[in-house]
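step 3/5: co-fold with iron/sulfur cluster
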Amino acid sequence: MDLLNTLVDKGLRRELPTREEALAVLATSDDDLLDVVAAAGKVRRQWFGRRVKLNYLVNLKSGLCPEDCSYCSQRLGSKAEILKYTWLKPEEASKAAAAGVAGGAKRVCLVASGRGPTDRDVERVGRTIEAIKEENEGVEVCACLGLLSDGQAERLRSAGADAYNHNLNTSEGTYGDITTTHTYADRVDTVQKAHAAGLSACSGLIAGMGESDEDLVDVVFALRELDPDSVPVNFLIPFEGTPLAKEWNLTPQRALRILAMVRFVCPDVEVRLAGGREVHLRTLQPLALHLANSIFLGDYLTSEGQAGKADLEMIADAGFEVEGTDTTTLPEHRSDAASCGTGGGCGSGSVCSSEEPAPAATTEPVRGDQARTDLVAVRRRGAGTDLAPNA
Ligand code: SF4
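step 4/5: write tokens
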């Protein structure tokens, strides 16, 4: 297919596809699916070989958030029966993190519900980072604490944080339909603050919230412009008790097309397969490893993932290898730039500025034909419980 040959060539040169090309990937038929995966897989292997980076989530503070993000089980008014607890002590968080590291995780992601941290919260997270780094040599720590105020990114950086996550989640045009208590611009601002403080920026999306193909392309192009080092791709877990509980819009095939599109638009960025992979990709998860070079090991913030052992077996069976701490995740041209705090760019500025205008809407979101609520399990183990974590 000409489209795929063009996209592979561009991906190998780190050149931005046009919006039409990105939309065309999402519009490919199921008959072409393996060709799409193979093409995006070439780009993935060029920049990341067959390595898979493992990340481990530690939910430092769960539930009771004052914000109203419709997709989130921790939101204001959520009826989802999730674990609810306040800040874990540094030693509790460190214990949970150690389980992930022992399972092969190279990065620990410390997440707390809420609009954003107070300065006292930042200090507390700083002590937690210190405790984790003392116990686990070489581990990367990413903080995800919501919207940052001036100076907080710098303080997290001095406390030892390597990265900061704040997702854009969806397009600017639909953001107000998903959340009303903060804006898309607030989110962009926090990613920029993290970047400016020399933290490795991590920012991604959630697919499956009823958005159009154009919305998906919008958010991925916006991410490319923001230039994070890692882009988590979440697939909505429609939790009972949240406003999006009935949004079962994804098929495994569509989830793969979305990942392929992200890989073509951000060829040399850590594309991370994130929440919802077990629920929406199901038995096709191994194919997603040809597109994403990074996954979360074990459980998520409020839901349970498949067993950590099953993750490791899947990686080995699919012919991939877990990335070790002695390997730098990003290609040299990006890691050099990231280490001097300027960001590497997933393509040159001149290429980024040659974007073409968005075409008119062409496709409707694909509706999955049945809800798989049987695959959604609320997390009942690990951080905040007396039970061993899944790692
Ligand atoms: S701010 Fe974070 S924890 Fe709060 S509702 Fe939004 S996504 Fe959930």
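step 5/5: annotate
The longest helix spans residues 119-135.
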